[in-house]
Design goal:
By secondary structure, the protein is of the alpha/beta class. Helices cover 34% and strands 20% of the residues. The chain has a ten-stranded mixed beta sheet. It has a ten-stranded mixed beta sheet with strand order 23-22-31-30-29-24-28-27-25-26, sandwiched between helices. Strand 30 and strand 31 form a beta hairpin. Keywords: ATP-binding, Nucleotide-binding.
């Protein structure tokens, strides 16, 4: 009994311990479950809180029961503390910093309240300091601990397009905001710098009516809802023109061009397109996308309202959600935007009217020559090209750009249309901007006038244009001078090409960068009435056409530019079948009633009024037309005053320009080649006349001691022949010390006596031995010369030969006397003369003679003696008479007053035109 009881108690005790242990285990599990449930609830609440936002949760009544739960309060407290920590750097400081940044990036009307600027026309020209941001409203960070507003602004011009997306209830609000933004744009810049285009799919009129006063000045264009394609085509053509005529030097955008040149050449075109939340037709949509992709670089800005678009280009968006909250890509998804309200309609209309009036007033102002000039002289570089205003249109400057894209200029207009005035205006605008180190001018006027003579020093006005290196006037009879200019340009082009090749570059801009110490100015050659250069069907025209084509085609890369001016280019036969020449003249200028300068279908020149010009940088096609009113540039106080100012600024080392005046005879004493002569400088050289070239050099014959070094002047004109003989004698005398050389001056006609005597006196005064003889002494003189030469040939002569120059005036007049034979020797005087011509040069005896006709020369020197005349100057002699004197060449030459044809068979392949010198000595009451 006791054992059973004891066993029972043990069993009961064990069960009690088991129950206690199980109870403890179950209690611990319940506590762990409760703690896990609380932790899970807190985790889920924390996640829920963070997704919703602690500030939104605190304000949401649905969350209040959770917030009152003591178990969740720590979670809320921790979230609030973390939220406060996150915005520690923002609160107070962030909005202030954004205010500062927007004020800096959006100055004036771009960001200030409208009350400070509305109604005032802008003053900025868009060349620089374009705002980086434009205000559209204010914004707040939704979950910030404190509601602090900051300005909402967006990038726009040249930076990004803009797209608005509204709801039906907020469309009017969006339109008001768009209007306010556009007013900021047009009020910031000078009127005309921004042009507005408005298109509304739903209505012909009604969109942005407050801006309509701008249309009066052409600042606003409202487009037909059914003609969106015309607007898009217009923009597409504008983009093509900008890329082909402006963005040709490697710069990617108009903004880059403005930054490099300091001037924006095109206005911004802002297109505001109102849609209906539906995509456009596929074709229109593709056009719009292409314009959006390429338009920013070309100054086209799109502002789209409820018009869906997907494009790979910068695009800011402002969307109104279904909840009415406005958000934008610039402010991000965590900020809500309050758009600026619509401005007072009455004040908007008044402001637009004031802007239009300002533009119309500026357009009505007649520009003057001073308006073409920059504030600072010589402040531009010609490295990438030349640009200058040529006139004004609607108050805005119209510029000419001469560079790689438009390398050459063709100017046309009938007599009295203002070509000379235009050229003066163009040159004035250029020379005031570019220094002589940046620009050189070569100026040639084929008409009978002295329009360009002003650029050289004169008797009354000693000033001259520092940029001018060569000025040619009255050259209508000297077409060879135009040929010489083209040859000079071709040679200079090759010189620059060689330098570019050496530096492994291809363009002048690159050459100047690689060789900064070199002098590589741009060259502009202006040829007025250039058609005269190609007027004849002869060798001059043939060579000129070839050179012109070469310079026009290859000159652009070497900075050599042509400006050709003419009354009419259609009748120049030399260019028939050669359209490639004029294709290089991309820049066309048509003055009133000009024909064949612009494209055949472009009749703008027939409609343009006096003192205006059509400036076309697109080979004359109509869409490239710009109309400019050209100011008076020829009256006293215009170009002449500018030239005086620039002349006073010039470097003292800068040489005067060379003047070639076809009506003036060059004076020997003023020729550089004559001034450079001195005794003992080498082989004596005779100067016979001035070669028609760009350097004003002299025609030279080297009097070496070899056969044939004799000179003949051929023709009947005493003055010209005396000029040739006198220049030869005086130039040779200058190269010998006094007494070193002998001169024989023989005059065989009474007409030539004065010239011969004056020359003999001049030579004697220089210290040289001079033997002056007439017809009676010529035979004896020739016989004496022949005797001396014969002695030297036979070896019996003992004295060293002295330089001896025999000048024979009208030697053919002595033929009757010289034809008589010496009874003892059976030799005639002509035989003696031929002997002297043949053997004299080898012993320093040179004949410089004047024959009054080519036939008389040839008849006296038959039997091979013509070869003893190695050089000649033909005066009033026709080309066909000279063939036998020039190795049988066919010579095309018609006599011209005060001109001669010079040939040296030892130096020349073909004869060249020369001008006999005036030697400045008296003869018979006149001057030679």
């Amino acid at each position: 009994m006791n054992k059973r009881t004891e066993r029972r108690k043990k069993i009961e005790h064990a069960f009690e311990e088991f129950r206690e242990t199980v109870g403890l285990a179950l209690g611990a599990a319940a506590r762990d479950h409760s703690r896990a449930a609380v932790a899970h609830a807190r985790s889920m609440f924390d996640l829920w809180l963070r997704q919703t936002g602690v500030t939104a949760a605190v304000d949401d009544p649905a969350f209040r029961r959770c917030l009152d739960n003591p178990l969740l309060k720590p979670v809320v407290q921790q979230a609030l503390e973390e939220h406060q920590g996150i915005f520690t750097g923002w609160t107070g400081q962030g909005p202030l910093e954004l205010h500062r940044l927007v004020a800096e990036a959006a100055p004036g009307p771009a960001g200030e309240p409208w009350q400070t600027w509305l109604g005032q026309a802008g003053q900025r020209d868009g060349n620089s300091d374009v705002p980086g941001l434009w205000r559209v409203g204010t914004a707040v960070i939704d979950r910030a601990p404190e509601r602090e507003e900051f300005p909402a602004a967006i990038p726009l011009l040249d930076e990004s397009h803009l797209s608005f997306s509204s709801t039906p209830e907020t469309r009017a609000q969006i339109e008001g905001s768009v209007e306010a933004l556009l007013l900021r744009l047009i009020s910031f810049f000078q009127p005309g710098t921004v042009q507005l285009h408005v298109w509304d799919v739903a209505q012909l009129t009604g969109a942005l009516p407050g801006l309509y006063p701008l249309a009066r000045a052409g600042l606003l264009t409202v487009h037909d809802p059914a003609r969106l394609h015309e607007l898009l085509d217009e923009f597409a053509e504008h983009i093509r023109r900008i890329h082909t005529s402006v963005l040709v030097d490697g710069r990617p955008s108009l903004r880059a061009v403005a930054e490099a040149t300091g001037r924006r050449t095109e206005p911004w075109r802002v297109a505001v397109l109102f849609g209906n939340r539906k995509a456009l037709e596929e074709q229109l949509q593709q056009k719009l996308q292409r314009i959006a992709r390429n338009g920013l670089a070309c100054g086209i800005q799109l502002i789209l309202v409820d018009l869906p678009i997907t494009v790979n280009s910068p695009l800011e968006t402002i969307r109104v959600g279904k909840d009415g909250v406005v958000r934008g890509t610039m402010t991000g998804p965590h900020a809500s935007v309050t758009l600026d309200p619509q401005l007072p309609r009455e004040q908007v209309t008044k402001a637009c009217g004031a802007i239009s009036e300002s533009l119309l007033e500026r357009r009505s102002r007649v520009c003057s020559f001073d308006d073409l000039l920059p504030e600072a002289r010589w402040s531009s570089t010609s490295s990438s090209g030349l640009e200058a205003p040529i006139g004004y249109h609607d108050g805005e400057p119209v510029s000419m750009i001469i560079g790689d894209a438009s390398p050459h200029v063709l100017v046309g207009g009938p007599s009295g249309s203002g070509k000379t005035n235009f050229l003066y205006a163009m040159l004035g605008a250029l020379v005031s901007r570019y220094s002589p180190d940046e620009l050189e001018l070569y100026l040639l006027d084929f008409k009978e006038g002295v329009s360009f003579a002003q650029f050289t020093p004169g008797r009354k006005d000693p000033s001259w244009l520092p940029h001018a290196r060569l000025v040619g006037v009255n050259v209508n009879a000297d077409r060879e001078f135009g040929l010489a200019l083209l040859k000079f340009l071709a040679d200079e082009m090759r010189r620059r090409a060689d330098a570019a090749k050496h530096h492994e570059v291809t363009k002048l801009e690159e050459l100047r960068a690689e060789d900064p110490s070199g002098r590589w100015p741009r060259i502009v050659a202006v040829i007025d009435e250039f058609q005269y250069l190609f007027a004849e069907r002869d060798a001059v025209t043939s060579r000129a056409v070839g050179l012109l084509e070469d310079v026009a085609r290859r000159g652009r890369s070497q900075g050599i530019h042509l400006v050709l001016s003419s009354q009419d280019v259609s009748g120049i036969e030399a260019f028939w079948g050669k359209p490639a020449i004029f294709e290089q003249f991309v820049l066309r200028v048509a003055l009133p009633k000009a024909r064949r300068v612009l494209a055949e279908t472009n009749l703008a020149a027939m409609e343009v009024p006096r003192r205006h010009a059509v400036i076309n940088h697109d080979s004359g096609v109509r869409h490239g037309n710009e109309i400019a009113r050209v100011p008076d540039a020829t009256s006293k106080g215009t170009f002449d005053a500018l030239q005086l100012d620039l002349w006073q600024r010039r470097a003292e080392s800068l040489a005067e320009p060379l003047l070639f005046d076809g009506e003036k005879v060059p004076r020997l004493s003023t020729v550089d080649d004559y001034a450079a002569l001195s005794p003992g400088a080498g082989v004596p050289t005779a100067l016979l006349g001035q070669v028609i070239d760009v350097s004003g050099s002299a025609a030279k014959v080297r009097m070496v001691r070899s056969p044939g070094r004799n000179v003949a002047a051929i023709g009947s004109v005493l003055g010209d022949a005396a000029g040739v003989l006198g220049a030869a004698a005086l130039s040779l005398a200058r190269q010998h010390v006094p007494g070193e050389a002998d001169f024989t001056v023989a005059y065989l006609t009474e007409d030539a006596s004065a010239s011969a005597r004056s020359l003999a006196e001049e030579l004697g005064a220089a210290g040289h031995g001079v033997d002056l003889i007439d017809l009676d002494g010529i035979r004896e003189k020739l016989d004496g010369l022949a005797e001396g030469l014969n002695a030297r040939l036979s070896g019996t002569g003992t004295e060293a030969p002295r330089p001896h120059y025999v000048l024979l005036y009208a030697i053919d007049a002595a033929y009757p006397l010289l034809e008589n034979k010496n009874p003892a020797t059976r030799q005639s005087g002509l035989d003696t003369m031929k002997f002297v011509l043949k053997h004299g040069p080898e012993f320093g005896t040179h004949v410089i003679g004047w024959w009054r006709s080519a036939q008389r020369l040839k008849s006296s020197l038959i039997g091979g003696a013509l070869d003893d005349i190695g050089s000649w100057v033909a005066l009033d002699v026709h080309g066909q008479e000279l063939s036998s004197l020039a190795a049988g060449q066919i010579i095309s030459w018609a006599p011209r007053p005060r001109r001669g044809l010079f040939f040296d068979r030892f130096e020349h392949a073909k004869p060249e035109v020369v001008i006999p010198f005036s030697i400045g000595i008296s003869a018979g009451g006149g001057e030679l």
